[in-house]
Amino acid sequence: MDLKELLCHILSVFEKLEIPYFVTGSLASMFYGEPRFTNDADIVADIKEHHIAEFAAFFSPNEFYLDEMMISNAIIRKHQFNIIHPATGLKIDVYIYKKDSFDKSRFDRRKKIHLSEDITAYIASPEDVIIMKMIFYKEGGSEKHLRDIASMLKISSEDIDRAYIAKWAELLNIADIWEIIKKRTG
What we know:
Blueprint: H1 3-16, E1 21-24, H2 25-32, E2 40-45, H3 52-57, H4 68-77, E3 80-85, E4 90-96, H5 101-109, E5 111-116, E6 119-123, H6 126-140, H7 143-156, H8 162-171, H9 175-185
Parallel strand pairs: 2-4
Antiparallel strand pairs: 1-2, 3-4, 5-6
Helix pairs in contact: 2-6, 2-7, 6-7, 6-8, 8-9
């Protein structure tokens, strides 16, 4: 199994169970920017308690690591859980939809696109990917987030609503990071 197959599998599960979702993180930044290596995918999903058993049934314990209690705790805490394919080391991080104003905006702005010839999926807007990468940079300081943002601004610049980013950067207390990025990218 490769990342594309794993992504196809989980997206089909979301579709079958009618769970709203969108792809974000490095896969989304690569869609809007330059490709780079990754062995994981980030997805935001509106999974509810009543979905857990049926959702987990799509991931055989012989092939995947998925803990139903971890899903339940993630739903309660509005956090995340993982689906791991141990044979390959591939991982999907599923972030629970928080229903705060920023997550609502991200769901409203998601786009249905063709990630490849055979994968159609909802994906976060480029602005929302940039905002989340700034948040992750603030939390952990990894330069990969800034490189991803620079790549997106370079390749998709004409399609990016900088006023939207500035608004949310201010509201989410990351305006200083947005200023640094603007200076670096011109």
